[in-house]
Each structure stands twice: as C-alpha cells, then as structure tokens.
Amino acid sequence: MLEQLGKQAKEASVILGKAGIEDKNEVLREAAKCLVQNQEYILSENYKDVENAKSNDMSEALIDRLSLNPDRIEAMAEGLRQVAELHDPIGSVEHMQKTPNGLLIGKKTVPLGVVGIIYESRPNVTADAFALCFKTGNACLLRGGSDAINSNLAITNVIQSALESCNMPKYSIQLLTDTSRETATKMMQLNEYLDVLIPRGGAGLIQSVVKNSTVPVIETGTGNCHVYVDEFAQKDMAVNIIINAKTQRLGTCNTCESLVLHKNILESHGPAIIDALLEKGVQVRGDERVCALNDQVIPATEEDWGTEYLDSIISVKTVDSFDKAVAHINHYNTGHSEAIVTDSYQNAQEFLNQIDAAAVYVNASTRFTDGFEFGFGAEIGISTQKIHARGPMGLDALTTSKFIIYGNGQIRK
Known about the structure:
It is a single chain. The chain is of the alpha/beta class. The radius of gyration is 23 Å and the shape is globular. The strands form 4 sheets. The chain has a 7-stranded parallel beta sheet with strand order 10-9-11-8-7-12-13, with helices on both faces. It has a 4-stranded parallel beta sheet with strand order 5-4-3-6. The protein contains 14 helices and 16 strands. 49% of the residues are buried.
C-alpha cells in the first residue's frame, strides 16, 4: 500500500514539474474556495478528533493545536491564496556565465520531486504543506498523527476534489490513513519514491525521524524560545511582549517557554512581569532571586531551563550581565526563536550577532516566527538546522537546482 502511494506521488511529480505558473495558481485558488465551501464537512470531522482528544485527556494546549473553527479554515484558505500570489521560483536561472571555451553555464531552480512530511496534531499543516509543495512542482505524501486523522483526511479529500476539477493529478497530495509507527518507519525508508522527508512535531517525533530515516531529512526543531529582558528594557514593553509570546497560543513551537531577566531590572520590572503571567494562569518556575519576588513562584530545577512545556508554564532565570544572558540562552535554546527587550542599540546588535538561532528578535514577540507572518503565505515547517534551509521554510526551501550548459560543439581536450 505504501509503495503504491509512493509510486502515485512520483508519477504526479513528473506532471507537476511541467505545470505552468497559471495552472498551479488556479488550483491553489480553487482549493482555497473548496476549503471554505466545505467547512461544515471539515469541522464535523475535526469535532470527532477533538472529542477523542478530550476523552484521552489531551492537554488544553494540544487540543487548541488540533481544533479548527471557521476562522482557522479561512486562515488556511488565505494561506493558499497568498501562495498563489507569490513569485514562482521554479524555472528561474541564475549565474549564467560564459567560460573561456564558449560554454554558457547557468543554475536553474527545479522541484525536489516528492516531499514526505510526518507531522502531529495540527490539521492546518495539511493545507500548508500542499500549497507550498504544489506551487514548487512537488507532490507531497503526508502522514499526520492519529489524533487528527479525521481532520487531515477531510482536508485532503477537499483538496483532491479541487485538483480533479482543474484537471490536475489528485495524487499531488496523498495522506497515509495508517498512522501506526510501523508504517511511519517504512515511510522513512521509502528512498525509491521520496526525495526528502520533513518531520514537524515534538522532540520525540523529530528524533525518531532523524534516527530511523534513510531518506534525506530537513530537520524542524522544537522551540525552547527565550525572551531576555535587558537592563535597558522598558517595563511596559517587556510585559506586553512576554504575555503575547507566552499566552497568545500555548501549543506552538514559537511560544516563549523561558524568560531571562537582568538583575538590574529584577526589582523594578520583575513583579509586574510575574503578576501579569500569574493573572493569565501561567505557572512561574524561577530561580532563588525570582522566588523571592512572589510566593507563588515555584522553585525551578535544572531541567526547567531546557524544557519546551507547550503548556501554561514558564521558567524564569536571573542573570548578572548581558554576556551571561547570551551564554544561558545559547546553552539551553533549541535554535528556534529568541528575543531581547532593550533600548540599547549596542546590546540589540550584539544579541542579533551572538545568539545562535533561526530567528532573533529585538523588541518583538517570538510568536512572529511563522511562514504566514513572514510573508511566505504558509510554511512547511521551521527548520532549526543550518544546511539547505533555516527558519520558516517557504517556497525556496522546497526547491533544488541543476546546472544547465549551452554549447556549440565544444569537446574536452
């Protein structure tokens, strides 16, 4: 069964690789329209997943990641529309140059081929993955989690109907309905058909794919994201950024999980920050100096500094200097998104230069690390590795290149 899906995806990718820009954009716009028109069907299937999640005692943050509503379906559709409006990188030629023997050598952008994606919980990934893969001429083979199987299948069915109505291969997007670990492992070794595999989910999933895959992997990372409140930070700005970064959505990889406070603003800013977090229902776990500010703060352990909670919990660390803040963040972060709140131009620049992460912010919430917010229309994931792609992966991350050479009879001597 899995090999059959792989074969169908490969065949579809050949057709997609030759598809014109307008043909692809037409499909994306039609798929967006179909998602909205079929939202009752999608929501009814999503309801099944949410009820199952509740009966299995899934956390509220993860249920939020799983849940759909009309606004979120419209956001999925808008993502497809935005991708349709983006520049199509396929076919562009760079660095065309003439060699001394008269050869013209250039570098042409081409699709990867078949992109496999293994992901958890978030049904919007199904639509986002299709949009970016399809725009770049790639077929996609998807394996979502068992907790979102009904939602993912409904979205896939709607998109496939849009493909067929536009006379494009329905197998441009396919979903594995067998969500067992055995099938996932087999997918990781489908070298004959998959050109690349992208995991999107928690640390366990990502590590499993990196460990077991024989298909090349683009690693997306977990998000132990920090906000550092510098000694030159404005208090109100710090409070607003921290509350947004932590509480706007708990279950996302760009949510702030760790807070770092300079000792010089601990007394002036710390109480307001902690009070604001507690008012939002966030459990604060702090070091000894933070615990002294509020008796509701729970003593932090070493494990807290490196934990991605995906829950209403945050760790708070006090540092004695800017350099120690940078050292702490670089030691415990996951290479995702880090932010500084400061009025110091010098500290802002040093933070940007020294922090090792895919996205580094000055005076803004980490919640902006997202393909939609970055103007990519959608994202295939957020890469925390340094090879091929880093940060929110848009269209360019789903392409490769080949050299094209024009001659007029040259032979090598």
